[in-house]
Amino acid sequence: MPDCIIPALALVFTLYYLTTITEVPWISQASAFVVSGLLLLSILAFVIRDDVIEAFAEAITALDDSMPNGTYIDMCSRLPLVDPKKILCPTIVMRGEYDGIASFDDLTKFYTALPNNDKQFCVMPGISHASFQQKNYQLVYYILYNFFSQPEPIYRGA
Question: pTM of the predicted model, to two decimals?
Fold first, then answer.
């Protein structure tokens, strides 16, 4: 019986948590469903027997013995993902003030390598990497709106 207390409490919390997200933005709802899914998986970890988990692990590792680093490490080890010299259109490079993925130095090198002089570099205050999911997300929309609605230059030189 004591083995059931934690899964039961986790299930009650998960169900309560899901009832509190009806009046929030869709991105918060999506995040809540991910968190709820993780909570439900943790409940299963208490309920499923060890021999079932061991059999599953053996079956999976028999299929492939490689270990991925994960999307974060894989992505960061390959930055930049594109060659800036091949980007010929007007470009804005946006970086969150607290971005933990794209460093300021790396992005300024990328920005400098862009061949088109119609380019902008913007550091967004109070924002990390996932700019559309931050409290200051409206600043992101403002920056993008102004970039895409700016008038064409009348004169570009000889």
Answer: 0.54
